[in-house]
Write a structure and sequence with these properties.
heterodimer, A: mainly alpha, 13 helices, B: alpha/beta, six-stranded mixed beta sheet, elongated
Chain lengths: ~270, ~400
């Protein structure tokens, strides 16, 4: 017989991973619900998921590639689609997982389950958009006749980094926005500035060349700076990422662990605040 | 914890910080950081030092007024919120139903929502799959199972939602007032299901305002007042106690001439509502005939007076007005009484209040008597299987028969 002890004086520091695993079916169901609901409400459904990244890509390519004339080793539009694909995933998951506790407050107030399942489940539905972007990328690769580099074997590592980065920020934001509703307004702003402060439409070397060393380090505190740079290198080679990529990697680790700890700390009070 | 104890609650308290600190903005918290930590925090104590044990197979009813702490207690037992002090030990798989249809999504079909709701309630997808046919059958919405639930009527929605919940197989079941939903037929099904659960040796905790349901389902009851356990024992006794708590009702008031209420024309001496029953707890049931009596001094001679009595339901709707005979009779200066009888089997359950208008010459209101006649009508004992609320403002017993040619 399972035994549950609720004690006001005993507090966890890390989530109960065993319990999380027990609720894996809820994770699948919630992810699948998002999947269904996302395309149920819009009439043009999946088409909408294609239009958005294509338009973003075209505009970035027009402004940075044509107007500004950023020089890249591969065609600029192909260069940019690598960034928009994984950044798009990051932005989507961060936004949705950041809002997830508030938007599921009905559930949070009425039933117990490990709350962490909610922001975690948002990582799945973002893959649709990511997959669409990858298809666009493959189409462009065929068009330009450019194949992947031999580093491609490392691509999953950077994708994984991107997933953890998105979830870390999402977990932080979901817990913070329960307590401080202001964060709901901060998230769109983060997405907006992140698009420019991440080497999506320009090479990361720009940051290291044009900024003093300390500022370049700060630039790489953006976890996605390292992820985008590394993902692009793994796909198309070119200049290998420098030491600064470790700044991003460590940042992701710190955000992830601290996010889990902060979430666990406020988890018990969520029902009282939402 | 003895071998038979399933739930052991030890000294739990729960307080909420209210006032400035609860303002959920960043700016609010930042300014609070700079205030001295000794600044006063207003605390609301929802529960104070509550302890009790529940044994296996018990069906425990929790009663108490709104705001007494029942819901907070349920939320703590269901792990939705943490106690501020104390501990709870639960042995067994717990399912709590504080609401039916938690997590239901309007865009998804009935079938999809069964899986969604089932896993939210703690079932695995496999368990839901195994029970799926039973759930659908119990709900009676087979025909619409592949329709998005946004097209369901509210009755269908609730039936489907409850069916999922009813097929959970927890060792401990926590239920909050969910029986107050659905039609009579469905309520009977639900009650049956709850009885099944308890007969299988499972433990049930049940919160309700419906004393009949508590009496017929529970083996033990707890009365909570102001965050504390006021009494614990036999459901018959506890429900009676709970009902007598509601006697903040004004059933009879007397005034002396010197401090009477009224004005220069009318002074009130006495106002009362008397049921014709011999209930020692003086509860008014739907079966009682009520006598409403207002004694007043008329301060002027030869005044053509009539009275207009208004009965209001709890939310303030006027149910009816009753007039003393027209044309108005001229009355002498001195003591008079207005007496009105409300027949048995006429009012429904719920709170009511009475006001009385004193009218001169059939047109001019000279005094309005209000706020002193409030009462509550409760259910009588023999209502059969259905435990829901009877709909409507009044409940007249009409001649209504089924005739077969």
């Amino acid at each position: 017989m399972s035994k549950t002890v609720i004690d006001a004086n005993k507090k966890r520091i890390f989530p109960d991973f065993k319990e999380l695993f027990r609720y894996k079916d809820l994770f699948y169901t919630l992810a699948w619900r998002d999947f269904k609901v996302r395309y149920a409400q819009t009439t043009i459904g999946l088409l909408w998921a294609i239009i958005q990244p294509v338009v973003t890509l075209l505009i970035l390519s027009l402004v940075f590639g044509r107007f500004v004339g950023v020089e890249t080793e591969i065609p600029h539009i192909l260069f940019t689609v690598v960034g928009t694909s994984i950044w798009g995933y990051f932005a989507y998951v961060m936004t949705n997982s950041g809002n997830s506790i508030i938007s599921n407050q009905g559930m949070v107030k009425k039933i117990y389950f490990p709350r962490l399942i909610i922001p975690l489940s948002k990582a799945v539905v973002g893959f649709i958009d990511f997959a669409i972007s990858l298809l666009i990328m493959i189409a462009l690769m065929i068009y330009f006749g450019i194949g992947p580099s031999s580093n491609v074997i490392l691509a999953p590592v950077f994708i994984l980094m991107g997933i953890i980065a998105a979830l870390s920020v999402g977990i932080w934001l979901s817990a913070l926005s329960v307590r401080y509703r202001d964060f709901q307004h901060i998230v769109p702003f983060l997405v907006q500035i992140g698009l420019y402060l991440t080497p999506i439409a320009y090479p990361a070397e720009f940051a290291t060349q044009h900024l003093p060393k300390w500022a370049a380090t700060v630039y790489f505190l953006n976890p996605m700076a390292g992820v985008v740079q590394g993902f692009r290198w793994s796909l198309f080679g070119g200049t290998a990422p420098g030491n600064l990529i470790w700044v991003s990697a460590i940042m992701i680790l710190v955000l992830f662990i601290s996010g889990l700890m902060y979430f666990t700390k406020v988890e018990d009070k969520m029902a009282d605040f939402v | 914890m003895s071998g038979n104890t399933v739930i052991s609650v030890k000294n739990i308290s729960k307080h909420y910080v209210i006032g400035a600190k609860k303002d959920g903005s960043l700016a609010g918290t930042l300014t609070n950081l700079f205030k001295s930590s000794s600044s006063k925090k207003d605390k609301f104590h929802a529960l104070k030092d509550v302890s009790f044990d529940i044994s296996k197979g018990e069906v425990l009813g929790i009663v108490g007024k709104n705001g007494a702490g029942k819901s907070t207690l349920l939320k703590i037992l269901s792990q939705i919120t943490r106690p501020s002090k104390g501990s709870v030990e639960l042995n067994g798989r717990i399912a709590s139903l504080l609401e039916v249809g938690t997590g239901f999504h309007p865009e998804l079909t009935g079938r999809e929502n069964i899986f969604l709701n089932g896993t939210i309630l703690g079932m695995t997808r496999k368990e839901v799959k195994n029970k799926f046919d039973e759930i659908v059958e119990f709900s009676g919405v087979q025909k619409f199972i592949d329709t998005p639930v946004k097209h369901y009527s509210s009755g269908m929605y609730v039936r489907l939602a409850f069916s999922v919940a009813a097929h959970l197989e927890p060792e401990i079941l926590i239920i909050d007032e969910v029986l107050a939903v659905g039609d009579a037929e469905f309520q009977r099904k639900c009650l049956g299901k709850m009885k099944d659960v308890s007969q299988k040796g499972r433990t049930v905790i049940f919160v309700s305002h419906n004393m009949e349901a508590i009496k017929s389902l529970c083996t033990r009851a707890i009365l909570i007042t102001e965050g504390q356990i006021a009494d614990d024992g036999d459901p018959e006794i506890i429900t009676k106690k709970y009902l007598s708590l509601n006697n903040t009702l004004k059933l009879s008031t007397d005034w002396t001439y010197e401090n009477s209420i009224g004005n220069e024309l009318i002074k009130i001496k006495h106002a009362s509502i008397l049921p014709d029953n011999e209930n020692e707890d003086s509860l008014i049931t739907v079966r009682d005939e009520l006598t409403i009596r207002i004694d007043f001094w008329l301060e002027e001679d030869d005044l053509a007076l009539n009275l207009s009595l208004h009965l209001f339901a709890g939310a303030g709707e006027c149910i009816f007005a009753a007039l003393t005979g027209l044309p108005a009779k001229k009355l002498k200066k001195g003591l008079h009484s207005g007496v009105c009888i409300i027949p048995r089997d006429f009012l429904n359950t719920g709170p009511y209040s009475i006001s009385c208008l004193f009218v001169q010459d059939e047109t001019k209101a000279i005094y309005t008597f209000v706020d002193h006649l409030n009462f509550e009508v409760v259910e009588n004992r023999d209502r059969g299987m259905w435990h829901g609320n009877f709909p409507g403002f009044i409940r007249p017993k009409l001649d209504f028969k089924i005739k077969t040619e």
